[in-house]
UniProtKB/TrEMBL annotation:
SUPFAM superfamilies cross-referenced by the UniProt entry: Virus ectodomain
Keyword annotations from UniProtKB, A to Z: Membrane, Transmembrane, Transmembrane helix
Organism, scientific name: Crypturellus undulatus
InterPro entries named in the record: TLV/ENV_coat_polyprotein (IPR018154)
A Pfam family matched in the record: TLV_coat
Alphabetical list of PANTHER family matching this protein: ENVELOPE GLYCOPROTEIN-RELATED, VIRAL ENVELOPE PROTEIN
Protein name: ENV2 protein
Amino acid sequence: RRVICGTEYENTTSPGAKWAITAEDGWWVCSKNGLTPCLSPAVFQSNKEYCIQVMIVPRILYHPAETMFVYWEMRHQRTKREVLSSLTIAMILGIAGVSTGVSALVIQPSQLAALRAAVDEDIERLEQSISYLEKSLSSLSEVVLQNRRGLDLVFLQQGGVCAALGEECCFYADHTGIVKDSLAKVREGLERRKREREARQGWFEDWYNRSPWLTTMISSFVGPLVVILLILIFGPIILNKLVQLLRGDYVKIMILRQRYE
């Protein structure tokens, strides 16, 4: 307390005083209660703290008129440049994204068509395998029927092969017609999808099927080429606007400088 205040004074307030009030526009700054406009002696004595009287002055910054004009011009100029550069960067990024998306959209249908063609090829292989099995089963059934007729002729005196064996006769039920009809429908569907795929196929997909590596290389260069073309088209316009903006700001600054000189 002695280091901060330098001098200490005893409490000279009257016994009936309830509040210690500072001078006009003054405040008490206490070690525990902080900033307060008035102070109770009873609380002050019980807390054993120390307080000093201060005057609070707001922070005031003085700027000449020339400084404000220059600050306003610089701020206006920075805002324009920032918006222009942001728009330019956003436009370039958007163009790059659009070009990349275009190349991806061009390649995606060809990949889906290739996947569909691969599925149709697998179905066609299965159809051929089932067709071969159906033909083998039909030939086997014909051989069995021929053997049955031959055995019936051999055991004709005994009443046939079934009577000779003493068992019930077994008969063959041919259901290969259903298999043939199902295979015919599958084959018809494959041919129809193949014709539709060939009818929908454009020049780019035809080119991709003939030379996939060349099409991939060209599609990878489409994005950068589109960006370069757009820069060549819109670049001079943006540059002229930027030059006009800077020239107008420079003229305003020169007029203000000549006025205040």
